[in-house]
């Protein structure tokens, strides 16, 4: 049985490095499905740096909106697919005036359907801070929180990363010696 994974954490917590190690251990044909859009020079530099750092280990697929469809296509060629990250995907959907709740529902249905490839979802936990001072930020926080709850129900394993340390909230804990977290 394919075990889907949700990896949550704050900014620069080590969640992506943790997810990358899980992906490398989980399959022989890993894909990295990136949802970021490089809309300015700083973001373009970040994207290029990340691509270069994982080029030898992952096939990179870039898709800011059509995540469920892209997962299904990627599963034809890859036994593990790392999605980084859901909060950027939600942002992209909001900016495009898409129905986020419907998109999350479609993603959930896709995960249930997808049995041939392991999917590792990375997302920023944004609900631990102060209540945002504007309606758009509160909507984003609420949508992200609802998405995390729904996907945590579906995923077999859920990990929360704090200061580079994984805490297993649901499912199987990885063997610590096998997963080394270190982000640049």
Automatic annotation (TrEMBL):
Q: Does the keyword Lyase apply?
A: no
Record keywords, A-Z: ATP-binding, Cobalamin biosynthesis, GTP-binding, Kinase, Nucleotide-binding, Nucleotidyltransferase, Transferase
Q: Which reaction does it catalyse?
A: adenosylcob(III)inamide phosphate + GTP + H(+) = adenosylcob(III)inamide-GDP + diphosphate; adenosylcob(III)inamide + ATP = adenosylcob(III)inamide phosphate + ADP + H(+); adenosylcob(III)inamide + GTP = adenosylcob(III)inamide phosphate + GDP + H(+)
Lineage, top-rank taxon, reads: Bacteria
> Which GO-annotated molecular functions does the record name?
adenosylcobinamide kinase activity; cobinamide phosphate guanylyltransferase activity
Q: What Enzyme Commission number does this protein have?
A: 2.7.1.156, 2.7.7.62
User: Pathway, per Swiss-Prot/TrEMBL?
Assistant: Cofactor biosynthesis; adenosylcobalamin biosynthesis; adenosylcobalamin from cob(II)yrinate a,c-diamide: step 5/7; Cofactor biosynthesis; adenosylcobalamin biosynthesis; adenosylcobalamin from cob(II)yrinate a,c-diamide: step 6/7
The record's comment on protein family reads:
Belongs to the CobU/CobP family.
**Which named protein is this?**
Bifunctional adenosylcobalamin biosynthesis protein
């Amino acid at each position: 049985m394919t075990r889907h994974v949700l990896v949550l954490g704050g900014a620069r917590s080590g969640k992506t490095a943790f997810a990358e190690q899980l992906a490398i251990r989980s399959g022989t044909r890993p894909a990295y499905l990136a949802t970021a859009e490089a809309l300015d020079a700083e973001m373009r530099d970040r994207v290029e740096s990340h691509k270069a750092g994982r080029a030898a280990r992952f096939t990179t697929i870039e898709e800011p909106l059509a995540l469920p469809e892209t997962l299904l296509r990627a599963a034809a060629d890859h036994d593990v697919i790392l999605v980084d990250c859901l909060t950027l995907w939600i942002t992209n959907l909001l900016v495009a005036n898409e129905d986020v709740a419907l998109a999350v529902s479609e993603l959930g249905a896709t995960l249930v359907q997808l049995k041939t490839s392991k999917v590792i979802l990375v997302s920023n936990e944004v609900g631990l801070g102060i209540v945002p001072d504007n309606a758009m930020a509160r909507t984003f926080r609420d949508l992200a929180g609802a998405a995390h709850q729904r996907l945590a129900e579906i995923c077999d394993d859920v990990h929360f990363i704090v200061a580079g340390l994984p805490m297993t909230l649901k499912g199987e804990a990885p063997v610590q010696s096998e997963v080394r977290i270190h982000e640049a």
